[in-house]
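dumping these here so i dont lose them again. two proteins, back to back, each one seq then structure tokens. dont judge the mess
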Amino acid sequence: MSSQDIPEENLPAAQETTLDKVTGADEKHPFADPGLPPHEHRIQDIDERAAKRSERTVALLFTVSMLATIGFIASFVAFPADKSIYVFPIGHISALNFSLGLTLGVALFAIGAGAVHWARTLMSDVEVADERHPIEASPEVKSKVLDDFRQGAKESALGRRKLIRNTMLGALTLVPLSGVVLLRDLGPLPETKLRHTAWRRGKLLVNMNTNQPMRPSDVAVGSLTFAKPEGLEEHDEEFQNEIAKAALMLVRLQPDDIKDKKELEWSHEGIVAYSKICTHVGCPISLYEQQTHHVLCPCHQSTFDLSDGARVIFGPAGHALPQLRIGVNADGYLEALGDFEEPVGPAFWERG
């Protein structure tokens, strides 16, 4: 097909002429400014009843956020950490984690949805074109920004629409409380748990290796034996937490070698029972010197004298190992005569 067969209006020259007529482009300005479309008013701009409905919707979303935040805080109190629930189709999950995630998600979503709905239906939506300006702000620009801010604040009707203002402030005030409550996730409150162990009066001393109750004859002079409380089994859910406080080491000394009077009274035929947990950072003590009666922590070399109340003679440990008072029951087995009189392991601020 030759150029003579192409309709005249489809030729390039004809297209350019037509485009120039439509857009107003010329040689100096090849791309004409299309301008802005005419502004279309929203229904909220012309109907106060519609504006009130939007206001109530925004206030409702902020109120939902406040209620969800309160629910977030209440979840910490209502659900124990080990409680699980079935949620379809997820399955069994932690009730605490599920409630915290759900309430916090609702609280944040409601604030965001309320702010977006407020901006789209009640704030001014007039498009303003502004010329580009240098990066540095001149006094005129600063003045213009402040004027625009005041104008925007005026158009937001924050002062006039008190229901939105008050519910928004309430939602924004309560949401940070979620972060304060989250501090609980740093760890459970210790209460008095660090002051007590599984040892009680009458609890038998069970050999950690044989899992059998111990008699005085099972502990030879110069030997180091590890024990646990009767009834504490490795398959128990809380075994690791309990053994970390109740782990015990037994050493049999000659009664004449024991220098501390209290240590001698709390022993049985020269058998002394001390916490196995180092008082520096909680490492298990496992090294014993028969000649000196010293035990050594392998982590930071804290050394304790078991013949003198397990006092610290070397290393960074802050205080002596706690001693457990022991005796023998009617069947001839070693038993505890109570719990440790002081907390085991490293020092902590609640010790006073």
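---- next one ----
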Amino acid sequence: MVSDTDTAGLATAAATTITTAATPSAFNDDQSAPPDAPNILMSSRDHDSLPSGGGISFLSGSRNGRFSYGYSSFKGKRSSMEDFFETTMSEVDGQMVAFFGVFDGHGGSRTAEYLKNNLFKNLSSHPDFIKDTKTAIVEAFKQTDVNYLNEEKGRQRDSGSTASTAVLLGDRILVANVGDSRVVASRAGSAVPLSIDHKPNRSDERRRIEQAGGFVIWAGTWRVGGVLAVSRAFGDKLLKPYVVADPEIQEEEIEGVDFIIIASDGLWNVISNKEAVCLVQNITDAEVASRELIKEAYARGSSDNITCVVVRFDLS
């Protein structure tokens, strides 16, 4: 994400090597593949390299329904890395839960790293997480933001982060979004958005900000207070109460979903939802799919950090 607080980080840096490991996959699709992406060479020092990996697990209560997941994260042309991500499986009140999240920091990496370390912990410890998951998500997101701001008191530098998360619980996917990272699903090869970006020029977001006493102006792009190019985020204490961490939640049945893509805007700035689904619908390894999406975004000129998680489902 680019805001007035972090545009100085756009100096071109050497690209990194993104490595991959074999990951089982449970998805096949006989639709035709898009043309091969350019073979972009990514090479740099080891200290610039960021992790790529994945795994496989079973949906709660069913050995016949499984999912595979893969992730890749890439500093790209930015001078520093402000993206973080989380992939975790945990038992909560006797039920297995999977959590996937992408966190895109601005003004520094502190907020995104805090979310990686604390958001799912706070969510899974909510007393109503299993029986009223949507309420638990809303309350855990808000409380995590409060906790972070309390810990940051006295720090002069302000920072924030988006959060796009997906919780797999039973036969459901619950997507919660704050900011302009994004979650997209594939159903029979069609791209289905599971989140809508929180941009200041979204009519409902602009109205909310103005009713709270804030303003939105054009400064290279639409910005809250002339500063921030997203209307919802964790952190950003100087822009409260205009920039909030209230999530928008969308629930989907897993049945019929081929895969989901969770990614930071370094991907979505240059690749549409439809293009992303088309690019990886025939790649059966979730980790390879995440890596290929990052390579394609970089080849198309993305100037931001790029982080991507792909989750594929096999309900046979």
